[in-house]
Amino acid sequence: MSNKSSKLRLYGFNNLTKTLSFNIYDICYTETEEGKRKYIEYIDEQYNSERLTEILTNVTKKIGANVLNIAKQDYDPQGASVTILISEDGIDTATLDASCNAGILTPTSEHVVGHLDKSHLTVHTYPESHPHNGLSSFRVDIDVATCGHISPLNTLEYLINSFDSDIIIMDYRVRGFTRDEFGKKHYIDHPIHSIQNYIPERIKDKYQLIDVNVYQENIFHTKMLLKNFVLDNYLFEMDEDDLEEGKKAKIIKKLNSEMHEIFYGKNFEA
Fold first, then answer.
1. Can you tell me the distance from the alpha carbon of 264 to that of 161, in angstroms, rounded to the nearest whole number?
2. What angle do CA 111, 114, 117 make, to 5 degrees?
3. What residues are annotated to the active site?
4. pTM of this structure
5. I need a labelling partner for 255 at 20 to 30 A (CA). Which of 78, 218, 229, 246 fits?
6. Chain-wide mean pLDDT for the chain?
7. CA geometry: angle 56, 159, 100, nearest 5 deg
8. CB 53 within 8 A of CB 95
9. CATH of 11-264, one of 2.60.40.1180, 3.40.50.1970, 3.30.390.50, 3.60.90.10
10. 51-72: per-residue pLDDT in tens?
């Protein structure tokens, strides 16, 4: 059967809303207060609003949508946010509201927001550090909400690869209903048993994955924890070879505890 003939024929506009929300965590060991400060400065530079805008713009292209408007902001002391409104169909610039920029940003723009006629994308970053034990982390919150035929699930591989992802926590939900040409309601318009259906095997092989799915409500939840632990990947301005074995063991224990607490969403006793 061809793709064209297998598509569900709908009556009017597809009113289903498909929302993909996920958090990405990067964990790091920063031994000194100066190291913490430099790590946060590094993250802020690597994932400033300009870089995040580029990532979300590429997401828009990958789901086959068009940018209506972009808004972005860098924050003091750290963090950044970007919002993009998108459209499934092409844009007639003559019909755009005067406040929309169609994704064209001028050098003098201090704020960027992205708007779509059917959908939106948002990203927020949260660099932070533990007050006592040398741990620092970087969290990215991303939401991709679409209506119509476009799906945010097709962007998963690109988004995962766009960040250093030690832990990934994802939620996908389909809301509302749409009607076919006979008037019958449809509460989902694509097959899915798990978010994992849309993650390539080469990425899944790198992670421990847990699913919690509520099929009757079209709610899907997947958590991912990186399997291979290489200490040097978690040390900021330090080298594993310069550490004594006892100190390495203590750092590894702290990092593993932090990652598992985030992954399971609860604190473990020290």
1. 22
2. 145
3. 119, 124, 147
4. 0.81
5. 78
6. 84
7. 10
8. no
9. 3.60.90.10
10. 999 999 999 888 888 888 888 9
